């Protein structure tokens, strides 16, 4: 599959259909690939695709106040199902032009949670990684371990319903449709059973370890405000210290800002250097949006996100009783 | 150990509104504690962090000269959250000051030389400090030429003092405005053009240049054209600041920290900095 | 060199904790950092480089500078006990030494109190640093690129080697010597001990990746300052603060007032030159608007500006940024990229 990916990208660049292809390549860490920016056909061989490809590459369209999206450059982008939904969101929000993007879908079987692998490896450093048929093998000094991929996948992937891009220009292999039966989110069901006080306790326990590095916000394609509310100082909406009150406000408001726009890719949770369970609130918000408005983010690039749209016939029980 | 982060108390003695839009106010502050006043020794070009508890701090060049004891003068432009609060101060209010910070205009080096002071807009603050200092030590310096330009006559700082200095015969003061205004008897034209017109000779001359980035950008080539060497042209740089004492890492341009290596730099030093000013 | 039997370690820590607030690596929820410990059991001995760096012991994430109210300004109470840190790897103890160069004094006027940071000095000047040798460096460790050594102990008062059945300790400063002289439970180390330590040191050094050649990096960085290479190197950076916050030497901070109705406090909080508004001015002008300008600033500061001002790089090769970066920006690759970049003219 990877060879076909490289071949297709090589051709796109050689033919001048695109000037740049964003994907993933092997980095200096065994368990996480690194974003690749391929500009010449010979470099296409750097591209890889496996369970280490955890970043959401769509984020690069809106970096630096949407510099790439506004540049008019023709860009190819390799996407998993969730990443493709981010692109749909961008198109729906008019942040990028469809004619400037070549969407290259790859079949995704889920990406790794580095912390889960580290736990399984007993803290020994992983130096080599390989995968085959639903099993992953990690090797290092005094380490040779084969695991079921299911046991160490990122939380977002355990309940992923849309593993492959739904809208694409090229797909490497066969694009699968909706994966039914995968949307049982046990962790979220447990959370919903808790009383408000218990939920607050759980959230406090999670967010008290936050170091306010904003890795979650910065890797998220849905977060592209030119001035984020946490950076404003006039008025100062949120304090900048990692005190739980301010940190809680940051995460809650960020969740509200991406409600109905989050594609549940899990890039935030994988980016967090402190291993916070960041997806919990995102997925709660996504569930609420789906229940109330029948809207799932990124399914249709022509559809406005739920929070950016008003329909007279939508449920208004939260305000009208 | 004394705590350098704790400001000393100053009382607002006088507030002067400099312009009709009330965007520029000059504050004269006196020392609440005599001990603080005795310890506070400064030179023209230095700055202070002006502290408003609950709002924050903002750095301002000291506009008074060390030859004027008993008060410190600052001119504040209303731009952001802290300066807006400063503009709400009343006479008698107590504020905080940390300083004096930074380096100063090399007045020792300037001795015996001819001084050319070029200012634009409300950047004239530390230039006032320098000019008053030079006047107090008049016999140590040669010719003094001042070129000061603003958009329109309302925007000049220290108007009363400018009028006084104009009358003096031991210095030459050229005031210029951008566009003609009825009743204006001074020069008309942007500062770079006026500098070209009226700049004195480069013989034994030192230039001190302060103004908005665009004015500096266009005046430097003129000075080069007139053959003023980079080592003899000084300016005062600015960057966003917080601690003012070289710790927080915010105000650097290249390896120079504006708060401790500057804000005064010669153009020769600036030429070596990779980052643009 | 002296020897502390492992079975005597619990007592050792107990007696240390009587005189000092003892910080050591502690793991909670899968992530490690330096926390105050009461007993030796709290220490996670399996940590090599902790996830959170120990700079937060002396330079906390947020620190109250003073409180104020209508009466005036009041400093907060200082903790009574001096600080002892156990288990600092060489990269971390060296990092503290570098930070002391910044916070302890001003480079031009070392004796001038105006430039001494009292919050740092009150903690660091009286502290006791136990460096711990690294017997098994990781692939992300690169202290040897920057003059460091897994068995070096730069910045330690007492340097400790874990020899299996015992800790072997060596004083490195007067403070360390004074401590060892007074401490109980320590015996003179034998020739065998010294040999064991040397063997462990040798083995550790061999385990490390060969050092990169960083000669001329400072000058090279200045030479390529305006080149396109920074667009390439910075392309994947998303400008969060993960690298700066886990780094043992990054020290940029913000100062904020938090108050209401005439009462409040002035706080200093970690900040990062990578954040978009770090250099944003009130006028709206931002000298480092582009991601790649901020990215470049971090590396210039670490390997060029700090060298200009203090003679050493502001990086100790701990590798935390390599592990923490959400997009795997690898500081070693950035440095290699700069060194191997050919000027357009030269091609």
Biggest interface reads: A-C, 44 and 48 residues
What is the H level of CATH, i.e. the homologous superfamily of the largest domain in chain B? Nucleotide-binding domain of ferredoxin-NADP reductase (FNR) module
Whole-number average pLDDT of chain B?
94
Rg of chain C, Å, rounded:
22 Å
Q: Would you list the SSEs of chain B in sequence order as H and E?
A: EEHEEEHEHEHEHEEHEHEEEEH
Q: What is the overall number of helices of chain B?
A: 8
Could you say how many structural domains of chain B there are in total?
Answer: 2
Architecture overview:
The complex is a heterotrimer of chains A (321), B (277) and C (347). With 321 residues, chain A is of the alpha/beta class. Chain A has 2 domains: 2-113 and 153-305, no CATH class; 114-152, no CATH class. Chain A is built from 13 helices and 8 strands. In chain A, the strands form 2 sheets. In chain A, strands 2-1-3-4-8 form a 5-stranded mixed sheet. A 3-stranded antiparallel sheet of chain A has the order 5-6-7. In chain A, β5 and β6 form a beta hairpin. The mean pLDDT of chain A is 92. Chain B is α/β, with parallel strands linked by helices and 277 residues long. Chain B folds into 2 domains: 8-101, Translation factors (Elongation Factor Tu (Ef-tu), domain 3), CATH 2.40.30.10; 107-236, 3-Layer(aba) Sandwich (Rossmann fold). A 7-stranded mixed sheet of chain B has the order 10-9-8-7-11-12-15, sandwiched between helices. In chain B, strands 4-3-6-1-2-5 form a 6-stranded antiparallel sheet. In chain B, β3 and β4 (56-61) form a beta hairpin. With 347 residues, chain C is of the alpha+beta class. Chain C has 2 domains: 2-60 and 68-207, no CATH class; 217-340, no CATH class. Chain C has helices at 9-19, 55-58, 90-103, 118-124, 174-182, 191-207, 217-223, 229-234, 242-246, 291-310, 320-324, 331-340, and strands spanning 2-5, 21-28, 31-36, 62-69, 72-74, 83-88, 128-132, 158-162, 166-171, 187-188, 253-260, 263-270. Chain C has an 8-stranded mixed sheet with strand order 3-2-6-7-8-9-1-10, sandwiched between helices. In chain C, strands 5-4-12-11 form a 4-stranded antiparallel sheet, with no helix packed on it. In chain C, β4 and β5 (72-74) form a beta hairpin. In chain C, α7 packs across α10 (291-310). Chain C is globular. The chains are: A alpha/beta (321), B alpha/beta (277), C alpha+beta (347). Chains A and C meet through β1, β2, α2, α4 and α9 of A and α9, β11, β12 and α11 of C.
């Amino acid at each position: 599959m990877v060879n076909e990916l490289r071949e297709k990208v090589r051709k796109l660049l050689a033919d001048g259909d695109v000037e740049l292809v964003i994907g993933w390549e092997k980095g200096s860490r065994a368990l996480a690939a690194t974003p690749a920016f391929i500009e010449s056909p010979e470099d296409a061989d750097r591209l890889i695709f496996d369970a280490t490809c955890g970043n959401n590459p769509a984020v690069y369209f809106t970096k630096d106040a949407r510099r790439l999206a506004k540049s008019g450059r023709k860009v190819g982008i390799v996407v998993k199902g969730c990443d493709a939904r981010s692109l749909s969101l961008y198109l729906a929000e008019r942040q990028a032009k469809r004619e400037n993007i070549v969407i290259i879908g790859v079949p995704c079987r889920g990406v790794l949670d580095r912390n889960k692998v580290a736990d399984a490896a007993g803290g020994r450093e992983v130096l080599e990684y390989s995968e085959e048929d639903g099993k992953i093998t990690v090797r290092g000094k005094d380490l040779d371990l084969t695991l079921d991929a299911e046991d160490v996948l990122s939380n977002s992937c355990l309940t992923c319903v849309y593993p492959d891009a739904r809208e694409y220009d090229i797909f490497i292999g066969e694009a699968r449709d909706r994966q039914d039966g995968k949307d049982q989110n046990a962790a979220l069901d447990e959370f919903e059973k808790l009383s408000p006080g218990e939920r607050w306790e759980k959230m406090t326990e999670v967010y008290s370890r936050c170091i306010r590095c904003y890795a979650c916000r910065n890797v998220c394609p849905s977060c592209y405000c030119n001035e984020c509310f946490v950076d404003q100082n006039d008025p100062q909406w949120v304090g900048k210290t990692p005190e739980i009150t301010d940190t809680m406000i940051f995460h809650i408001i960020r969740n509200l800002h991406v409600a109905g726009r989050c594609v549940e890719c899990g890039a935030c949770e994988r980016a967090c250097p402190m291993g916070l369970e960041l997806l919990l609130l995102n997925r709660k918000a996504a569930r609420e949006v789906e229940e109330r408005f029948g809207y799932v983010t990124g399914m249709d690039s022509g559809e406005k996100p739920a929070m950016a749209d008003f329909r007279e016939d939508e449920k208004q029980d939260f305000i009208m009783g | 150990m004394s705590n350098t982060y704790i400001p000393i108390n100053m009382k607002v003695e006088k507030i002067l509104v400099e312009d009709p839009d009330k965007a520029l106010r000059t504050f004269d502050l006196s020392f609440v504690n005599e001990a603080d006043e005795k310890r506070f020794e400064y030179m023209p070009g230095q700055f202070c962090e002006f502290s408003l508890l609950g709002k924050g701090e903002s750095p301002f060049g000291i506009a008074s000269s060390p030859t004027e004891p008993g008060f410190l003068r600052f001119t504040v432009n209303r731009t952001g959250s802290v300066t807006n609060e400063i503009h709400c101060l009343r006479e008698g209010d107590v504020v905080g000051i940390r300083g004096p910070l930074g380096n100063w205009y090399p007045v020792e080096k300037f001795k015996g030389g001819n001084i050319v002071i070029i200012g634009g807009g409300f950047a004239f603050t530390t230039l006032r400090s320098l000019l008053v200092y030079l006047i107090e030590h008049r016999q140590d310096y040669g010719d003094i030429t001042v070129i000061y330009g603003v958009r329109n006559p309302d925007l000049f700082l220290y108007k009363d003092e400018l009028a006084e200095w104009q009358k003096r015969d031991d210095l030459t003061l050229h005031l210029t405005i951008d566009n003609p205004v009825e009743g204006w008897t001074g020069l008309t034209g942007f500062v770079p053009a006026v500098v070209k017109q009226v700049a004195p000779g480069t013989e034994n001359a030192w230039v001190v240049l302060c103004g908005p980035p665009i004015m500096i950008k266009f005046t430097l080539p003129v000075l080069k054209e007139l053959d003023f060497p980079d080592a003899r042209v000084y300016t005062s740089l600015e960057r966003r600041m917080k601690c003012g004492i070289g710790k927080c890492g915010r105000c650097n341009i290249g390896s120079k920290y504006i708060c401790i290596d500057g804000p005064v730099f010669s153009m020769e030093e600036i030429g070596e900095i990779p980052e643009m000013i | 060199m002296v020897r502390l039997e492992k079975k005597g370690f619990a007592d050792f820590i107990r007696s240390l904790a009587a005189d000092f607030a003892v910080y050591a690596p502690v793991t909670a929820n899968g992530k490690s950092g330096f926390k105050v410990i009461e007993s030796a059991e709290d220490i996670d001995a399996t940590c090599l480089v902790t996830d959170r760096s120990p700079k937060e012991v002396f330079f906390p994430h947020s620190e109250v500078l003073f409180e104020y109210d209508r009466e005036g300004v009041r400093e907060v109470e200082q903790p009574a006990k001096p600080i002892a840190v156990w288990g600092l790897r060489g990269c971390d103890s060296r990092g503290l030494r570098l930070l002391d160069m910044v916070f302890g004094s001003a480079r031009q006027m070392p004796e001038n109190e105006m430039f001494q940071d009292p919050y740092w000095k009150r903690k660091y000047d009286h502290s006791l640093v136990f460096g711990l040798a690294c017997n098994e460096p990781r692939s992300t460790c690169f202290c040897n690129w920057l003059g460091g050594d897994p068995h070096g102990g730069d910045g330690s008062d007492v340097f400790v080697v874990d020899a299996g059945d015992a800790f072997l300790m060596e004083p490195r400063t007067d403070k360390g010597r004074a401590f060892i002289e007074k401490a109980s439970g320590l015996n003179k180390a034998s020739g065998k001990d010294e040999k064991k330590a040397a063997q462990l040191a040798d083995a550790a050094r061999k385990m490390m990746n060969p050092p990169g050649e960083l000669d001329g990096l400072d000058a090279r960085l200045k030479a390529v300052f305006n080149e396109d290479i920074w667009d390439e190197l910075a392309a994947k950076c998303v400008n969060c603060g993960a690298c700066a916050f886990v780094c043992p030497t990054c020290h940029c901070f913000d100062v904020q007032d938090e108050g209401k109705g005439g009462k409040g406090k002035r706080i200093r909080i970690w900040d990062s030159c990578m954040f978009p508004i770090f250099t944003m001015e009130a006028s709206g002008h931002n000298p480092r608007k582009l991601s790649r300008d901020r990215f470049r600033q971090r590396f210039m500061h670490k390997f060029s500006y700090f060298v200009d001002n203090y003679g050493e790089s502001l990086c100790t090769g701990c590798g935390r940024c390599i592990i923490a970066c959400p997009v795997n920006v690898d500081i070693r690759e950035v440095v290699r990229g700069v060194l191997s970049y050919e000027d357009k003219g030269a091609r």
